[in-house]
Structures are given as structure tokens and as C-alpha cells.
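Researcher: We plan to redesign the surface later, but first we want a full-length starting point. C-alpha cells attached.
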């Protein structure tokens, strides 16, 4: 037994052991490390932007009317990489939701709506749109929120009656009104707009409660002058 063990560490046996160990180390460690170094894997829900010295590489597109150019974008999958020249920065392109500030909006007939709304959006995976997202807009949510909020305000200002349309109708109208501007200015796709809370403001409720006959200004024959006082005492904060 001793002769067998000592024979493994002598002469040709030791040389074979070293070569075998080196080959195994190369297969298990060196080659995977090189593949990882020269390959970039982009996961689903992400995109990679090619960079140099930490800054995205901008390409000028011939025949394009936009002077801002495009960035080099890698979609999900495995791509060859040359780290000596280029590196890649991952960008999350999954859909997300952003809340708009609660606002008091006035309809066409003077009805006031205290509106809580949010909008769903996602970055557009193209060289031009991600160029806008990464370089021209520090916070795309702020600019897109202003655009969507303005479209919501304009839409509500043209509505009659004391209630808002259903979310399906309201979302389609707002998206149709401002989706192109959101894509052009922010590099994102506007998916939908949802009103998560809607109530008439206290001022309108109070005026309805203390005015005989509601907004008509006429007094019905069976109107009890004590009813408005009861209504006013039972009002609570809405929204």
C-alpha cells in the first residue's frame, strides 16, 4: 500500500496527476470565467445599453430627422461582448405604475371631482427611445406624470354631470390624447390610466345640502327648512 501511494507522487505518475488536475481546473474554472467575461446575458424584463467609459455610445442614423441619434441596445438573450472596448449597462424595461398627485378638478357643469389616479407605463426597447430615457430625461416619471395629469385635467374639464366615466372609457381617451407625446418626450409607452378614487368635494356637497331643491334654486312645496341643517351636521370629510 505504501509503495502504491508513494508511486503516485513520483516520476511519470506525478506528471500525469498534475496535467489531469490542470485540465480539470481549466474546464471547470478558466473556460466558464472567460465565457462569462466575453458574453453578456440579458434577462427577461431587461435591456442592455452599450457604453464606453461609463457613457452610452450614441450612433448617428443616416436619413434620420432626429439629431439625437440612437444607443446600441441588446435584447434578452446571450450576446458576445468585448470588454476591452465596450461595457454594458442594464436597464429595467418592465411595466410599472406611478401615482399622480390627488387633484381637485372641475367639470364642465361646475361639478368638482377630487381625483386619485395612477398610470401604467414601461420603457420602449428601441435605440432611440432608450436614448431619450437614459440621457435626456433625468426622471421620466416626473415629465410623463405632468403630461398625463394635464390630459386628465383637460378631459375632466369637458365632462358634464357629477360622475366620471368608467375606467375603461376614461383610460382609452387619455391614452389616445397623450400617448404619442409621452413616447416622444419620455421614451416610454403609456399603457393605461386608472382612477383609483373619485368623490365630490366637500364644497359641492355642502352647497347641495343647504340649497333648497339642489342646484335649481327653486323651493319644492314639501321642502322642510330643517333638513339642510341635518344634512350639514352629518357631512364628513370625503377623499
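Model: Full-length starting sequence:
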Amino acid at each position: 500500500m505504501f509503495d502504491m501511494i508513494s508511486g503516485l507522487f513520483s516520476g511519470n505518475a506525478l506528471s500525469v496527476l498534475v496535467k489531469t488536475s490542470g485540465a480539470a481546473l481549466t474546464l471547470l474554472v478558466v473556460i466558464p470565467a472567460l465565457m462569462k467575461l466575453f458574453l453578456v446575458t440579458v434577462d427577461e424584463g431587461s435591456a442592455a445599453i452599450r457604453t464606453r467609459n461609463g457613457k452610452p455610445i450614441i450612433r448617428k442614423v443616416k436619413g434620420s430627422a432626429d439629431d439625437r441619434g440612437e444607443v446600441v441596445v441588446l435584447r434578452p438573450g446571450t450576446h458576445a461582448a468585448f470588454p476591452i472596448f465596450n461595457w454594458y449597462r442594464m436597464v429595467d424595461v418592465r411595466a410599472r405604475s406611478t401615482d399622480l398627485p390627488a387633484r381637485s378638478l372641475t367639470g364642465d357643469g361646475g361639478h368638482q371631482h377630487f381625483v386619485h389616479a395612477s398610470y401604467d407605463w414601461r420603457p420602449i426597447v428601441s435605440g432611440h427611445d432608450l436614448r431619450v430615457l437614459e440621457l435626456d430625461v433625468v426622471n421620466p416619471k416626473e415629465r410623463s406624470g405632468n403630461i398625463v395629469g394635464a390630459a386628465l385635467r383637460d378631459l375632466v374639464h369637458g365632462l358634464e354631470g357629477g360622475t366620471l366615466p368608467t375606467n375603461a372609457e376614461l383610460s382609452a381617451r387619455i391614452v389616445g390624447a397623450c400617448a404619442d407625446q409621452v413616447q416622444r418626450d419620455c421614451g416610454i409607452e403609456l399603457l393605461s390610466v386608472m382612477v383609483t378614487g373619485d368623490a365630490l368635494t366637500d364644497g359641492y356637497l355642502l352647497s347641495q345640502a343647504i340649497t333648497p331643491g339642489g342646484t335649481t334654486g327653486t323651493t319644492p312645496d314639501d321642502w322642510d327648512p330643517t333638513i339642510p341643517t341635518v344634512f350639514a351636521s352629518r357631512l364628513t370629510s370625503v377623499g
